[in-house]
Please model this.
Amino acid sequence: MAHGSIAEQWEGGLRELRLVHHKPASPNADQGGCYHDEAYWFAAKRYTVSDLPLTSFVGPDGLVTLLAFLADRRFADPNEVLELIKRLHVPNYEGARNSFEAAIAEGVFEPRSTPGYYDQRELLAVLNWISNEQ
Model:
C-alpha cells in the first residue's frame, strides 16, 4: 500500500477520485506514470488536484472514509468510489481487474453477478489464468 496515493480532482462541487501509483509501481511507468498533470488541469479547466497516501484509505477506518464519500455524494460518479473500495479492500481484485473481459471470453469463469463484482473463486480463477498465459 506504500506504492501510491489517492488523487482527488475537483471543480466546484464536481469531484473525481482515482488511485495513483508511484511511478516505479505504475502499470503506466513507460508513459509517464499515473500522475495528474496538475498545471494542465488548472490551466485548462481550473481544476485543482490533491492527494492523500493510500494508508488513509485502507483498513476499517479507510473503508469507513470511502463509504462516507458515497453517503455524502462527494464525487460526481459513485462508481469511482465503489471501484476504489474493491481495489483496496477486496483480496485479489487489483491483480485480476484488467483481465475480466478476456477471462470471461476464454471461458475461465461464468459470471454470476453484476459485472465487476466477482467473488474470490472467480478472482482466483482469473489470476490462475493470467499466470498460465504468461
Remarks:
- The beta strands are 4-11, 14-21, 48-53.
- The CA atoms of residues 82 and 112 lie 19 Å apart.
